[in-house]
Structures are given as structure tokens and as C-alpha cells.
Amino acid sequence: MQKSKLQLSTLFRKQIFIPLAALLLLALFNLIADPSFFKITLGQNAAGDPVLSGYLITILDYGSELAILAVGMTLVTAASGGQDISVGAGIAITGSVILRMLCGSNSRPETLQMPIICAFLIAVVAGMLAGAFNGVLVSWFKIQPMVATLILFTAGRSIAAWINNNELPIISEPSFGYFGNFIPGIPIPTPFFIAVAVMIVTALLLKFTNLGLYVQAVGINAQSSRLNGLNPTFIKFLTFVLLGICVAVAGLIKVSRLSTINYSVVAKDIEMDAILAVALGGNSLGGGKFNMWASIIGAYVIQFLTTTLYKFKVDSSALPAYKAVVVILLVVFSAPTVREFISAKYKLLTSKNEKEVA
Amino acid sequence: MNKQAKTSGNVFKKIGQMTDSNLLLLITVVVFILMYASAMIFLGKGFLKPQAFFNILNENAALIILSCGLSIVMITGGIDISVGGVTALVTMSCAVYLDFHNGSVAGAMLLALGIGLGFGLVQGYLVAYLDIQPFIVTLAGMFFAKGLTTIINSNPFNVANEHFVKLKETRVTVPGMGSVNKLGNYVPAYVEIGVIIALLVVILMFFMLRWTKLGRSFYAVGGNRQSALMLGINVKRTRFLSQLICGILAGIGGFVYFLHVGSGAATNGAGAEMNAIASSIIGGTMLTGGVGNIIGTLFGVLSLSTIKNIVASAGLDKAWWTGITVAAMLCIFLVVQSIVVARKK
Description:
Largest sheet of chain B: 2 strands, antiparallel
Strand content of chain B: 5-15%
Largest interface: A-B, 46 and 47 residues
Shape of chain B: globular
Low-confidence stretches of chain A: none
Structural class of chain A: mainly alpha
Number of helices of chain A: 15
Mean pLDDT of chain A: 86
Number of strands of chain B: 4
Helix content of chain A: 55-70%
Oligomer: heterodimer
CATH architecture of the largest domain in chain A: Orthogonal Bundle
Largest sheet of chain A: 2 strands, antiparallel
CATH topology of the largest domain in chain A: ABC transporter involved in vitamin B12 uptake, BtuC
Number of strands of chain A: 2
Low-confidence stretches of chain B: none
Structural class of chain B: mainly alpha
Number of domains of chain B: 1
Order of helices and strands of chain A: HHEEHHHHHHHHHHHHH
Number of helices of chain B: 14
Distance between the termini of chain A: 16 Å
CATH topology of chain B: ABC transporter involved in vitamin B12 uptake, BtuC
CATH architecture of chain B: Orthogonal Bundle
Shape of chain A: globular
Radius of gyration of chain B: 21 Å
CATH class of the largest domain in chain A: Mainly Alpha
CATH class of chain B: Mainly Alpha
Strand content of chain A: under 5%
Number of domains of chain A: 2
């Protein structure tokens, strides 16, 4: 009895508990409201290939970009104690670069100008450059991340339009659509595999290098990490470049989904969701210790919530209001003061019970 | 010659001794005057008429009020990104109230104030007393306001209420200012009611920040929360009040926006939070807290809109130039600020 109580309280204190509990609550809500939410069917798409469909698959599919961004955003948040609000604009830039590379000057190409992988690599470089720009402002000029990234946030979509001369290229080549939809013969959406690949690579990077430790050290106290021989300037810079790579990957998925781009709409407000994912994961937005997996689960919680609301026929423009209520409830219950208050009440209650038993 | 060199040396010394707030204010004002003067010289045309300047005020009255609110929370070390959403909510609620419920203009004003007050109270409580990050709280506030706007009414429409239209059309002529139009008639320059409200807000907030106990404690809390606590300042209450004032100003700003556009729409005030933050930064307010000036914020708004007008009238009509130039300007100001801060170390 005593032991199980102890385990429960350690579980409560684990950082990953909040997003997991939110996920379970949402799942439970759907199970009670309508169990058909969990139904997955094997159907065929327009091309006649087998595809899985269902709400759960939608969550895995559309949560991918957010999960990828959450990985990078966690690192940036942990190291710099601030957030990058230019990721949506960054997706517009990298997506625009991919299309520009594939189409050349012709916006309706018959054949692709270069292999998709080359265009993607160039987009990765563009993403890294955008990240480096933010990184320089944050680490060398010591400007707060949110303000520094406000620059690219303002200019990003304009730059994206400028790259393609404000045309909207459309790619008819079917293989380009594989990254955002399905590869023929594989019934699971490709973005999920890409997201998993990003997670595994980052997890390996954190496991086999000191990056994770250094990032935390810089985030907790940049001054003392410098005295311990680290270079906080470079580490902050590095996290922004890594986020730039994540942005390029998300950009590839975004443009591949529709085989085209709309500069002012693509990935709109995704930066807010990405920051929210980090916060829902229980990570401090002030930097320091971080848990990448908690952020990823946070990203899927957001997508789970969105899909649930869509299922209940909530209008897409009214969606944010419901999202806000859930977010406020989550952050209020995970706020330290509220938690202390609840645990104090809980203790009082249990001690009373014990007294009565005695 | 020698004397002149000495005085100019003194000027530099004086500039070196200025506080961060004053130095950043000086830079902003100088940049704005240079920018407007060069626009007058090189672009001429529209910029020479006094009305061109008053039009900038007419169009940005709401943004001035929103930026004042943001400056105050930023000085206290917080942030409020819900102001754009609150603006949209205020315009839509007032429009629905006036047209569908035959409401009075005074009632609409109270409604706008009430919405602002509500957002300020809740967000302030969550930020100050529950110690939740202001970014997350106000982000949720923005989502909530935007969503609620479309729940109230999803279609944008123009308000037809005659009392309101009368108020909207009211123009206050500026004495001694005006220009001669093509027909040779003298046209006096005018401002809308919103501009007068905005200027009143600026003056009120300027006095509040400079000469009241509350205003000084905003700076103290933003500068260093720990030492403010040691000085006996009620940090929680101060943070709560900063968030509250920003909420109320968002309500007023929303109504002024409504008075200018005369329509209720979910897209009203889109991106206003980022414009307000950018204006505050250009005006010398620092997001780290403790540094800032309301007069600077006013000039920040003016600079931001002047550069937009310059881009538009300089023939750079391609849509992307506005975004890129505004960002470039922001970038330059931020780098200058970081150098100003670094100069003391």
C-alpha cells in the first residue's frame, strides 16, 4: 500500500506526466463520447493504393510537422530561455526554396529541374541560414529570442514570395507528393515516418554527444557554464541552426502535401502551436532542463485536441477558443502554486482519514 | 575651433551619461525626424501636406493605444500578445451590439471597456498570482478572443447605426494646418476622434509612468524583481496591474480601431500584437524589462507607419517590400539597442 502510493507520487512528479495525462484524458473523453473515434479502416486512395484512414491516423499524419518543430523548439527553449516565433515564416521560406529549385523559372514544369533530394538539401541550407541569422542575433547581440525572431517573422513570408517572384508553382510530378501523403504500397502516411526519423536522429544525438548536457547547462546558467569551459554563445547558436534543419524538414512535408504553396497561409500560427507543445510538455519556457519526448507528446496532444474538435463539427475559425480553454486549464493545473495547493489539500485529507482509521 | 571641439566633446560625454531609456528615446526621435524629412525632400508630393502626417495618426490611433499597453507590460518584464485578438473581439461585439440589438454608442463603449477589463483581470491574475508564463497565458487569451469573435458572428459587416456613423465621421480640424487643393480651395487638416483619445492615453500613461508610485514600481519590478521585492514593492500586485492596464488599453484600442474602420470582422487587428511589440521596441522599450518610454513608443508607431508609407510611395509596389523593410528597420534598431546596453559593460 505504502509502496504503491510512493510510486504514484513519483509518477506525479515526473515531467512527462502532464502531457501523458492530457493525452489519456482526451482519449477517455473520445471513448465515452463516441468510440468510433478509434476506428481505423483500410481503404484505397484515388490512385488505387491501400491506405489506412481514421481519426488516429489523421492525428499521426498531421501532428508530424508540429512534432518535428517541437523537437527543435525544445532545444532552443532550453538553451536560450526564449522561443523562436519565426518557424512558420521559416517553413514558407524553405518550402518556397524547394519549389524554386524543382521548378526553375517555369511555374508549371513538365519535368523536375533536379532530384528532389538535392532541392531538399538546398532548402536545409536555407533553413540553417535562417536559423543562423536568428542565432547570431540571440547569441552574439544578446537580443531576446522572441524579439530577434520577430524580424524573420515579419519578413519571412515576404522573402518566400520574393524567392518565387510571387508566383505559385504547382508540381505535377507524383513522386513529389510522397513526402506529404502516402508512398504507394505503404498504408501509413509518410510524414509519420519522417517525424519518427527526426526524433530518432535527435535522440541519438542527445544520447551519444554531450549536446543535451551542454544545452541544459547553458540554459540554467550561461555565466557559470562559461566558467566551466563551455561556449554558451556557440551552443545557443547551434540550437537555432538545429531548429532551422527541423523547419526545412517540416517545410518539405508542408509543400509536398499540396504540391504547391500559399505564402501567406502555409503553416500559419504553427509557431504558437510549437511553443505550446513545449510548454504542455512541462518544459520551462525560461530555459534549463528539458525533456524532448514530453514536448513531442505535447505536440500530439495539440493535434489530438484539434482532430477531436473537428470531429465534433467545430468550425475551424472557432477552434482557437476551445483550444484556449483547454490550454488554460492545463497550465493552471501544472502551475507550481496550484500544484502545491492541491497536494497540501490532499495531504490534509489523507492525514484526516488516517486519524479516523486510528 | 578649440572651444567648439570642447562643446561637441561635452555633448558626446552627456550622451554617454544618459540613461538607457533617454538615449534610446533620443535615437528613435532623431531617426523618425530624419526619415520624415528625407521623405519630404526626396519623395515630396504627399509627404509635404500636413494632412499626410495627420493621416498617419488617423490610421494608427488604435495601434498607438495598443503599443502604450504593451510598453507598460514590457517595462514590467511581461508580454501581452492577446491585444490583436481583443481588438477583433471588441469590434465584432460592438458591431453586433449596435446593429442587431439596437444598442447605444455609450453602451458599446462600456462593452469595449468591459471586454478589455475582463481579459486584463483574468490574464493578470494568472500571470501574477499563479505565476504562469505571460507568453502562454496571453497566447491562450489571443486564441480565445479570436475564436470567440467568429462564434459571435463569422461574417464581417459594416455598422449602419446612425449615431455611430455620425461619431465615426466626426472630424476635428487642426487650427493653423491645411493645404490648398487642386481647385485652389483651402482644405483644413483634420484628425479623427480616435487620435484625440490616443493622445490622451499617451499623456496619461506618460505621467503615470514618470511621476506616480505605481509607474516607478513598474520600472523597478521590470528591472530586477528580487530587488524590487527587497524595496518593499508588492511585486505580484504590480505585475497584476501592468497586465490589467494593458487589457483595458486593448479594450480602448479595440474601440478606437472600430471607430476608424466602422466594421466588425474577425480579421480586424490581425497582427496588431506584433506591430505593437515592434513599435515599442523601435521606441526604445526593452523586452527584458525596466527600460522604456511612452513618448518613444509614440514615435515608434509613427516611424513604423512612415516607413510603410515611404515604401508604398517610392514605387516599390511589390507586396513583399513592406515586410522586408519593416524587418530590416527592426533589425537595425535591435542591434543598436544591444550596442547601447553593451556600452556600459
